[in-house]
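Per-residue structure
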Amino acid sequence: MTSLNLGMPAAPPVPLAPRRKTRQLLLNHPTHPVLVGGDAPISVQSMATTLTADVNSTLQQIAELTASGCQIVRVAVPSQDDVEALPAIAKKSGIPVIADIHFQPKYVFAAIDAGCAGVRVNPGNIKAFDDKVKDIAKAAGDAGIPIRIGVNAGSLDKRLLEKYGKATPEALVESALWECSLFEEHGFQDIKISVKHNDPVIMVQAYRLLAQQCDYPLHLGVTEAGPAFQGTIKSAVAFGA
């Protein structure tokens, strides 16, 4: 097909804000370690949709994600069966594995012992999480394992919901920075942060507010984005903003 040149000027490139300077952390891996933050390139992370306890299926999906350009993979850890699968997955994965911890603080320690490159914690769905921060900070610090403090609108601390009335950008940011302060009290700063919302507009507002108040690297994402078509649109709007 022949293109038609109408002599119209090309659209100028969209101006981008200067990249924010952040701390840098390392997600270790024998062959494909990934630096996050600082002057490192933006990395791509995805999450396995398999049951983590199904080691073979999980590793197969990780291989497919890796072939598609994924550099970091997250696996859900809501049960003891999933915990027991972590050593094999962390050892055999071709990219760094992040354990996404649910419900039980003890799973954080198990993920560290299993050799995961990082841990994601959601303070809103882990029992008595604040009481365990000192021990988690020591274990992660001793092992050189970064922690992502992942705040979600759907599981926001009840105290913040009462204060703000709903999951506002300010509520999400306050939750994240409060948890960061608990880790900082114990000398742990190998942290990245996410403040996710299912509304991409609120998500963008929250991340912009957060970026003004800290120098931790940020993990971007839209929570509960929905099916592929809807999720693609929401993510494109959020990331493109």
Q: What stands out?
A: The mean pLDDT is 90. The first strand starts at residue 24 and ends at 27. DSSP finds eight helices and eight strands in the chain.
